[in-house]
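Homework help board

Subject: predicted structure for assignment chain

Our instructor gave us this sequence and asked us to write out the predicted structure in token form, then describe one feature. I got the tokens but I'm not sure how to describe them. Can anyone check?
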Amino acid sequence: MAHQPVHVIGGGLAGSEAAWQIARTGVPVVLHEMRPVRKTDAHSTDGLAELVCSNSFRSDDADNNAVGLLHEEMRRCNSLIIAAADANKVPAGAALAVDRDGFSAAVQERLLALPNVTLSREEVAGLPPAEWDNVVIATGPLTSPPLADALRALTGEESLAFFDAIAPIVHKESIDFTTAWYQSRYDKAGPGGDGADYVNCPLSRDEYDAFIAALLAAEATEFKEWEKDTPYFDGCLPIEVMAARGHRTLAFGPMKPVGLTDPRTGRRPYAVVQLRQDNALGTLYNIVGFQTKMKYGEQTRVFRMIPGLQNAEFARLGGLHRNTFLNSPRLLDGTLRLKAMPALRFAGQVTGVEGYVESAAIGLLAGRFAAADRHGQDIVLPPPTTALGALIGHITGGADAASFQPMNVNFGLFPPLPEVRKHERKQVMVARARADFTGWLGQDGAQAA
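My token output:
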């Protein structure tokens, strides 16, 4: 029996994952991506699943970290995004980080190799036509204004918004390794790494004090009048905004020196700036946690105050863009459909999840749900005790709609355990999640061969 296509709007991580999950069940997919017909403020290519901020998918430790557990669950669901990340990983300690160009190319190549996937380079300027009866909208935080306006008019609900800041990238050859050294915190190795995966730039107390003073005095990008009251997401604050919260804030945040030893002194530095490999060739490194809204000239001046980066050449300076997302607990049902128009299902960061992995995970679920609808199958939700289940449960009803803000996956979203010793909680939660996830996979009708 021939199926009508499912339309997926947006070729980012969530849209690409959704299209992959749908197509692998035999349902045809039309993937609509507006780049390069219409560009965005953050993207620089027209490639599918382009990474515009960090190149890290964060921790890959499935035994002790919620995002690592989410990686594992997505692998078990044949995730395209995680498979492409695994194939293009670069050294990053305990994290899963990727060569961003190789990653995007792999996603696009594998997805478009499926015979039932059609890529349409066009903007969907407004609500989809009525004949599209099964749609996944994965337009991300940079949804085109005509579509965003149409959704706002349909729901009567103002989309929330926050600013997302981008960290700068440095050419490795410009780093001074007479000062900087390679080391992961506590020498911990991760996927593709050897325990010496980060470049570390040490600061003395005087150097730290001078850096903070310069950071706070630097000229920043001006907000437009209508942007001034838009809140930041706490997980991606600009470095200068963090610094303004207290003189020692950065020393306990992205510049914390714990687990590191300066080989020149044999001691832990007062503060450290870390850089992480950004491409497979190892020629580019991004400054970890240094998202910024400083003007370009100020960035160059201030960041060259960091010992080891005094001659830094930047492949990309930091930037700032406005992100929008739905009040999902109010607007979406439990299978990510828009209550006001159930033919529309949402996925990715526009639903109010934060992070590459979380965005792709919601794309994975939206794709499986859309495929189940097309096959006439019952939708079985992942248990709330799993990472996928905890994440979707939070955005579709677990969060308070009145104060809803973007959220990364974390063990605080999982149902509490009965009496368990504190040091055993994560292990017990992970064991419970794995067992319940196995049961869900056995019931899920969207499992592809």
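Reply (TA_rk): Your tokens look well-formed. For the description, you could write something like this. Residues 183 and 196 are 4 Å apart (CA to CA). That's the kind of observation they're looking for.
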